[in-house]
Amino acid sequence: MEFLTPDKTHDESRQGEALVIEPGEKNNGRKLYIESYGCAMNFSDSEIVASILAEKGFETTGDFNNADVIFINTCSIRENAETRVRNRLKEFAYAKGKNPGMVVGVLGCMAERLKSKFLEEEKLVDVVVGPDAYRDLPNLIDKVDGGQKAVNVLLSREETYADISPVRLNSNGINAFVSIMRGCDNMCSFCVVPFTRGRERSRDAYSVVAECQDLFNKGYREVTLLGQNVDSYKWSATQLAEGATEVVNFANLLEMVALVNPELRVRFSTSHPKDITDEVLHTIAKYDNICNYIHLPVQSGNSRVLEIMNRTYDREWYMERVDAIRRIIPDCAISTDIITGFCTETEDEHNETLSMMDYVQYDYAYMFMYSERPGTLAAKRYADDIPEPIKAVRLNQVVAKQRESSHYRLQQHVGRVDRVLIEGFSKKSDKDYCGRNDKNAMVVFPVQEGYKPGQYANVLVEKCTSATLIGRIV
Ligand code: 5AD
Ligand code: SF4
To answer: DSSP letter at 13?
Structure first.
């Protein structure tokens, strides 16, 4: 998730961002510094962690030199994500050298992958905590205060943190992430996530709706429902009247959230091509406030490569799903993830990825070279045999094609009036607002009286740069 994007879930500029919240009522005089790497799920988890610790009286700080507890919420998806965290730990070592009472903890996927090995490899680390064990953090900190090292990397089949109302970190008060499920059962052969985040489980649908309602009441106007594979969301309420069992699938949940309020925009990520149903597509088409934007990772355009990736669909299936999107939601943005140089990928097979890109004309793509991850099916079964320079050439071709396609898609908006949710001032000037349209494209336009962040504006798009639409309120 390493490219600059119009989408906060993968925003490169947020990697390693320190998360700061308003101080709570309780105060134990200790300060927590927490920063996150990787996907939106990690950022969302850090909000849960901050919430658990705020309950115990911790305040947050944006300066780690000032902190009593430093937490780094880590990502294992590619090797360079892990390298980045290791380098960051070196900087924390310096701070701890000056303040030996400081507690340094590693959370998230790297903690889960390396477990207690982390304590041997990185001597300064005191606590190692996997993604399902955050409720145990206060105890683990106590243990470290008592002079021990502490580890909890137990994965759970039930934990969804459904009852924890996450504090919103660095929030603009307008967009929020809402986690609807955890874990992944898919076992794509390249992917470490099923090992680091455990089995798939869905969160209580009513707690999701209550959280979205609460966000709306507080002034939020956009929620992004998060899960590794949202289309396999499935939750059943067995305790309903007279023992009836109600099963809520993802289409049902989307509808329930859309009905919270027509002024609340609903986004979601990530969809798996094998699971996305026509029912979901019809639900998106039915509600104006469900954004016409689907993140549908293809990974490769070649059926043999897809098979050894264990994606469980082939090129034709994927194209048929894209056709269904175009048929049911004629004006829908589609983004994707692509991996270049997966084990044994030939030049011809790579060219099929390029031709898939021509077929779909993606609005946006996250593009990566294959990075072998220890313990995955691919690492066990196939040699990582595509030389790095070839992976890079293929990646460059994919990136170049995507640049054209993104530009083509953005240009389609020029001359149109888009409904934009104003998020705040543009990065460059406080004379301009910025916000996103329904397709998740960033739109910049002059501030106008009577319009404030958190409101919608109809913006006539007059031109576009490589990643931004530019216009004026009409
Ligand atoms: N190497 C490269 N990219 C990977 N991804 C997942 N695992 C790997 C890996 N080992 C990419 C996939 C996935 C996205 C979140 O990260 O494209 O969809
Ligand atoms: Fe990884 Fe595949 Fe699960 Fe996505 S769907 S998290 S790529 S195993």
So the answer is: G
The protein residue whose alpha carbon is closest to atom 2 in ligand 1 is 370
289-322 pLDDT, tens digit each: 999 999 999 999 999 999 999 999 999 999 999 9
CA–CA distance, 74 with 65 (Å, rounded to integer): 20
Please state the pTM of the whole predicted model.
Answer: 0.93
Hey, what are 207's tokens? 């707690």
Specify the amino acid at residue 347: E
Evaluate if residue 6 carries a pLDDT over 60. no
CATH for the stretch 18-152: 3.40.50.12160
pLDDT band at 13 (very low <50, low <70, confident <90, very high): low
Residue of 186, 190, 197, 226 best suited for mutating to test ligand 1, as the one with most atoms within 8 Å of CB:
190
Which atom of ligand 2 is closest in space to residue 197's alpha carbon?
Answer: 6
Q: Per CATH, the architecture of 417-473 is what? A: Beta Barrel (2.40)
Give the Cα separation of 333 and 312 in Å (integer).
24
Which residues, 6 or more positions from 257, have their beta carbon under 8 angstroms from its beta carbon?
208, 209, 212, 223, 225, 264, 266
Place of tokens 């809402």: 178
CATH (residue range 175-411): 3.80.30.20
Q: Considering only CA atoms, give the Rg of the chain.
A: 22
Are the C-beta atoms of residues 169 and 255 closer than 8 Å to each other?
A: no
Nearest CA to 367 among 343, 419, 403?
403
Which residues form ligand 2's pocket by a CB distance below 6 Å?
184, 186-188, 191, 193-194, 228-229, 272
For the chain, the structural domain boundaries read 18-152, 175-411, 417-473
Ligand 2 site-directed mutation target among 75, 78, 184, 276, most atoms within 8 Å of CB: 184
444: β partners: 434, 470
Report which bound ligand comes closest to the CA of 298.
1
**H or E element: which one contains 251?**
helix 250-258
